[in-house]
Specification:
Blueprint: H1 2-7, H2 12-20, H3 23-26, H4 36-45, H5 49-63, E1 77-87, E2 102-111, E3 116-124, H6 129-133, E4 143-145, H7 153-161, E5 165-169, E6 176-181, E7 190-198, H8 201-206, E8 211-217, E9 224-229, H9 236-245, H10 247-259, H11 270-294, H12 300-309, H13 317-322, H14 324-338
Parallel strand pairs: 1-4, 4-5
Antiparallel strand pairs: 1-2, 2-3, 5-9, 6-7, 7-8, 8-9
Helix pairs in contact: 5-11
Length: 339
């Protein structure tokens, strides 16, 4: 199944035929001959929780190798979002989403230190984003960037009580009162920096704390944004940059959907679909681990393409990924040894 992710196979038959073409290498890979019926049975019966647990193990290995995020502050930074994966209603009736289609949803809390999906949850398409957001245990002192789909004033209050900072956009119809105003650097696009509190009857009960409202106008698009946060220490421009960095989680979804197999499925049961997605996330972590270990400047997509062409070759991974650069360095060392 990992081979299918790396090479872009589209069906069980496709996987079996491609592996059968490498029969002379299966012995050295300690793999038995594969049949379509066996692969189908394993895909349907082996619980997806096994691959979910493997994802957790691989994540812990990656976390010790990750570089830090590019901001100056030391707080862990996360971007939280969800992406819907559309399914055919007739083939996947268990994932009923709307009257004409089925869907599942992948929720990800992306750690900006290495861009790892540190929090990953797969649910039915009907599950709301904020419902999953409430269940995630972000570490104390971390900063979470979220969009307005996660608007929940009670949750904002709970995050503050737990020592977790959030950066989001304020709803246009929110009723607030300005407690104090702070000076801003207008040459950086900032329009306001205020301490506010909610005045709505229900909102004030749900979130009885003071928060920070920051206005920012994008110099490129001219669009004006109003941000809401419970962090009063970071500069206002930094808060705006944190929300802008939230786009990284969108890029993560785009990369996974374009380069791995999570939009078309080789099985139709819930277990088969969940298995395929968790294996795809495991493959992403394996690629990230190779990148961290080798300290290469190559992108994950470049690494994936190299692996696609050498899946069944017995080669040193670092030599494969470094290519001519490592070869030239070894040749130079050999030349010096001869001298």
């Amino acid at each position: 199944m990992a081979m299918a992710q790396l090479s872009g196979r589209n069906s069980l038959r496709d996987i079996v035929e491609n592996i059968s073409a490498q029969t002379h290498r299966l012995y050295h890979l300690e793999s038995a001959k594969l049949s379509r019926s066996n692969l189908s049975r394993i895909n349907e019966d082996k619980p997806y929780a096994l691959y979910e647990a493997l994802f957790g193990k691989l994540l812990s290995r990656c976390q010790g190798k990750t570089p830090g995020h590019h901001f100056r502050f030391k707080n862990p930074l996360y971007s939280l979002d969800a992406s819907t994966i559309d399914l055919c209603l007739s083939a996947f009736p268990w994932a009923n989403f709307r009257s004409t289609k089925s869907a599942i949803k992948l929720h990800v809390g992306l750690n900006h230190a290495g861009y790892l999906p540190e929090f990953a949850v797969i649910t039915e398409g009907k599950t709301s984003d904020v419902e999953i957001g409430r269940t995630l245990g972000f570490p104390k002192g971390s900063i979470v960037a979220i969009d307005r789909g996660y608007n929940d004033y009670t949750w904002y209050n709970r995050l503050t009580e737990k020592g977790v900072f959030f950066v989001t956009r304020l709803k246009a119809n929110a009723k607030t009162r300005v407690v104090s105003r702070h000076p801003v650097m207008k040459n950086k696009g900032l329009t306001c920096d205020q301490t506010i509190e909610f005045t709505g009857v229900q909102t004030a009960k749900k979130c009885p704390i003071q928060l920070r409202r920051i206005g920012y106008r994008d110099p490129q698009t001219g669009k004006h944004y109003i941000f809401l946060t419970n962090n009063f220490k970071l500069a206002a421009k930094t808060i705006a940059d944190i929300y802008k960095a939230r786009w990284q989680v969108e890029l993560f979804f785009k990369w996974v959907k374009q380069n791995l197999k999570i939009k078309s499925f080789i099985g139709t049961s819930k277990n088969a679909v969940m298995t395929q997605i968790w294996i795809a996330l495991c493959v992403y972590l394996l690629l990230a681990y190779l990148k961290f270990q080798s300290t290469l400047t190559k992108s994950l997509q470049q690494m994936l393409r190299l692996l696609q062409l050498n899946l069944f070759e017995k080669r040193d991974l670092i030599t494969l990924l470094c290519g001519d650069l490592l070869y030239d360095k070894q040749a130079a060392n050999n030349q010096l040894a001869l001298i």
